[in-house]
Amino acid sequence: MQEVLQMYVSENFCYLTTTGRKSGKAHTIEIWFALVGSTLYMLSGGRDKADWVKNIQRQPEVEVRIKTTRKQGRGRVVAEGSEEDARARQLVFSKYAPRSNEDLRDWSRRSLTVAVDIE
């Protein structure tokens, strides 16, 4: 399963589908990610105010789609200041900073790190 995901490590974005905490309906967003093993890391510029983060906090079961591959996973907010948090921020920043016309340093520092552990 990890091998299937690894072929997508350089893709620009994934689609994350969460279950709406109020509506119960599926909500899909396009989002940047970094992949380590079977865990996808994403940064929320809206921190815990973003609907997709609130949805994960209420219902952590999610679906991730990269190109045509769909996988089920479990989302979680990464503990701020942890080693995992620092590593994830650096991975996402390193992947997207060279591709962006904007300076992503502030965004990568102030965002909330969210992980999706693929089942």
UniProtKB/TrEMBL annotation:
Transmembrane segments: none
Pfam short name (any one): F420H2_quin_red
InterPro entries xref list: F420H2_quin_Rdtase (IPR004378), Split_barrel_FMN-bd (IPR012349)
GO MF annotation terms: oxidoreductase activity
Domain of life from the UniProt record: Bacteria
Gene3D superfamilies: Electron Transport, Fmn-binding Protein, Chain A
The name this protein goes by in its record: Pyridoxamine 5'-phosphate oxidase-related FMN-binding protein
Classification of source organism: Bacteria, Bacillati, Chloroflexota, Ktedonobacteria, Ktedonobacterales
